[in-house]
Write a structure and sequence with these properties.
By secondary structure, the chain is mainly alpha-helical. It has two helices and two strands; from the N terminus they run ααββ. Helix 1 packs across helix 2.
Length: 55
């Protein structure tokens, strides 16, 4: 068996993408909520245009 940090890297990359999209959010709570919604698949992010879709 080999260990992989693939899931951790995916998580970190998605947070970095959210940070680029989130530039200009008024407070950290909004940013944290966006991370939660994306990580729990409540909303999705189009990686090409950095535009959030879904609700």
């Amino acid at each position: 068996m080999s260990a992989s940090n693939g899931q951790t890297e995916d998580f970190n990359n998605r947070i970095k993408l959210i940070k680029r999209i989130a530039f200009g959010y008024r407070n950290f709570t909004t940013f944290k909520t966006r991370i939660y919604l994306i990580m729990t698949n409540k909303i999705t992010v189009c990686k090409k245009s950095h535009t959030p879709f879904g609700v």
